[in-house]
Write a structure and sequence with these properties.
By secondary structure, the chain is α+β, with helices and mostly antiparallel strands. It contains 13 helices and eleven strands.
């Protein structure tokens, strides 16, 4: 995580406070925590939500983190989906608690931020506002108009990043040897089944078809077959599928992408196994429907080579280690902390 990633999230408060101060509060727990009576001269009074070793975090800190978790709410007048809001709120609360604990640990270790680093971070932060007016609005609403309060907030973010860099990021490196050992120890994770990439044109019967209707289905399918056979490439077959196919894949040019061979109906698999990529089948009856397939690709069952999965495996293992270290750090800091959710 780069240093400005947590600083950048401070920008969320600008839109949040603007929404709360200039419009009616969004529905949900945050709206209940910030009633209209709390709006004084365009400023939203903060309500404490948690006290950590005496330090108080407010509903504004919580709302900012909720927007960081679910930024799409900003497109809906600040409202969160009712079904998701409780989980978003819990996650945001745990995050602001974790960051405050990390910050307090950084202070306990007497960590500092170099003046030049702080000055550069403040400059970068100011550049993210499209106008000086918006920056001054932020400064007034969030920092009481004080540049020093802003500097303190940015210093706090930098200290959080520095401690996480030392305790999480630097300890989460995964070597090539570790990745190779994981690869060799977990071969099943890298086995890939046989797959076929298919396009289809399907003619479907109506519900509870009569014999006459079933005959009409076959006739329609037989009429479609010469057109399908005439398709010279993926695009031509796809355009035809969009025009005459009756299954749900018609809106995707009949494209099923790569399908596990074990998941294909036996008649489809039998036909596909006889075709080369680019070839088109005859009519295939699956129960009362008729299908024409085009095989775009065939991949036999195989074990992925380490060279194929190396980069993604390194990222996956590193992310798992990051998550494990963060959880461990959180648990360690909470052991000796006094946390009161208000």
């Amino acid at each position: 995580m780069k240093s400005n990633s947590r600083i950048t999230v401070l920008l969320f408060v600008l839109s949040v406070t603007s929404v709360l101060a200039q419009t009616k509060p969004p529905q949900g727990s945050i709206a209940r925590a910030t009633p209209l009576s709390a709006h004084v001269a365009g400023f939203v009074l903060a309500k404490p939500v948690v006290r950590i070793n005496g330090a108080v975090l407010t509903d504004r800190d919580l709302l900012r983190e909720m927007y960081a978790i679910f930024p799409y709410a900003r497109q809906h007048n600040g409202a969160f989906p009712k079904t998701l809001e409780p989980d978003i709120r819990r996650g945001a609360l745990k995050m602001i608690e974790f960051e405050e604990l990390v910050y307090q640990e950084a202070l306990r270790r007497h960590m500092t931020v170099a003046p030049g680093t702080l000055r550069k971070a403040i400059e970068q932060f100011r550049k993210q506002f499209d106008t000086e007016q918006r920056f001054q609005m932020f400064l007034k609403l969030e920092c009481g108009g004080s540049p020093q309060v802003l500097a303190n907030k940015i210093r706090r973010s930098l200290l959080i990043e520095d401690l996480l860099q030392a305790e999480v990021t630097k300890k989460s490196d995964v070597s090539l040897a570790e990745a190779k050992a994981f690869y060799l120890k977990n071969p099943a994770q890298f086995e890939r089944p046989e797959t076929y990439a298919l396009q289809t044109i399907t003619v479907l019967p109506p519900n509870n078809p009569t014999p006459a209707q079933l005959k009409q289905v076959r006739v329609r399918a037989e009429n479609a077959l010469p057109q399908a056979k005439a398709a010279r490439n993926y695009e031509e077959f796809g355009v035809l599928a969009e025009k005459i196919s009756e299954d749900d894949y018609r809106v995707m040019m009949g494209d099923h992408k790569a399908v596990d061979a074990a998941q294909l109906p036996p008649p489809i698999l039998q036909a596909a196994s006889r075709l080369q990529p680019g070839e088109i089948s005859g009519l295939i009856q699956v129960e009362q429907a008729f299908t024409i397939i085009r095989v775009n690709a065939h991949s036999p069952a195989h074990m992925q080579k380490f060279s194929e999965v190396k980069d993604s495996l390194l990222r996956e293992l590193q992310q798992k280690k990051v998550n494990r270290l963060r959880v461990g750090l959180d648990a360690h800091l909470r052991k000796s902390a006094k946390i009161e959710e208000l």
